[in-house]
Amino acid sequence: ATPTALMAGTGRGAQLGILIKGPEVLENTRRVDTVVLDKTGTVTTGRMALLDVVAAPGEDREQVLRLAGALEDASEHPIARAIATGAAEQVGTLPRVEDFTNVEGLGVQGVVDGHAVLVGRTRLLAEWSQPLGADLERAQAAAEAEGRTAVAVGWDGAARGVLVVADAVKDTSAEAVAQLRGLGLTPVLLTGDNATVARSVATTVGIDEVIAEVLPADKVDVVKRLQGEGRVVAMVGDGVNDAAALAQADLGLAMGTGTDVAIEASDLTLVRGDLRAAADAIRLSRRTLGTIK
Length: 293
Ligand code: ADP
Ligand code: MG
Fold this sequence. Notes:
43% of the residues lie in helices and 27% in strands. It has a seven-stranded mixed beta sheet, sandwiched between helices. A six-stranded antiparallel beta sheet has the order 3-8-7-6-5-4. The protein is elongated.
C-alpha cells in the first residue's frame, strides 16, 4: 500500500478507537491467522469480587480473611484487590505486612501478625509443602467447576483456607470472538489461571483452543511455539505479564484499559478495552491494503 493509504487507514483507526503505532503496522496485520487472547482483563473485565471464604477444618474463617486480606493489600493484582477490599469490608482494619514478596503468576507471600503467610495458586503452597487437604480441595473443585478462581491461603506450614473470587466475562467478548472467526481467524485463550476456569470462560465466549496455567514468563514461549507451527499470531493483552508476548507476536494489541507496559509493547491499542475493536483493526487493515493492489 502507498504511504498515503496507510496514513488514511491510521486516521480511520483513531476514529474507531484504535491507536496505531505507525503506518507499517497495518501491513503486519494482513497475514494474521491466529488471535491469542489473554483471559483476565482482556476477555473478562478483570474487576474481580470476593464471593466466598472457606476455612479448613478447625480454622477460623475471619482469621483466614484477615491474614490473606492484609497480604493482598500490598499487591496490585486484580485478584488481590478483590481479596483486600472484601476482607476490609468484613473484618475492618487489616494488619500490617512485613517482608512482602510478589511471586509472579503464582501469588504473594509475607509476614502478617508474626505468621509467614502465602496466598495464591495451590502450586505456590505446594512449593512450601502446604497441600490443601480433602476439604479445601473439594471447595476448590466446586468453585472452579463454576468458572471461578479458587485462591489458596496458608501460613506457618499448613493450608488454612480457600478464597473464591470471580470476574465477569465482558458482554462484548462473545461477539468479538464471533467476528474474529468471521474474518477467518482462530481464537486461542491464554491464561495463567487454571484449566477448569479457563475452559469455562472459553466456552462462554466460543473459543475451542485453551492454553492455561502458563506462567507470565512463559506466555512469550507459547506465542513462539505457535509461530514455529507456521501460524501468524496476533496477541491481545492488558497486563505486565503479557508484555513480552505482545512484543513477540506478529501483531500486538493492548487493551487501552490495561497497563502502560502492555501498551508500550504493542503495535495497536484498543482504546476502549472493547475486544470487538480487535476485529475492527483486522478489517481496517485488510480494507486499507485492499484498496491498493
Ligand atoms: P492471567 O494470565 O489470567 O492474566 P496471572 O498470570 O496474572 O493471570 O495470574 C495467574 C494466576 O496466579 C491467577 O489466576 C491466580 O490464581 C494466581 N495469582 C497471581 N497473583 C495472585 C495474587 N496476588 N493473589 C492470588 N493469586 C494470584
Ligand atoms: Mg491479564
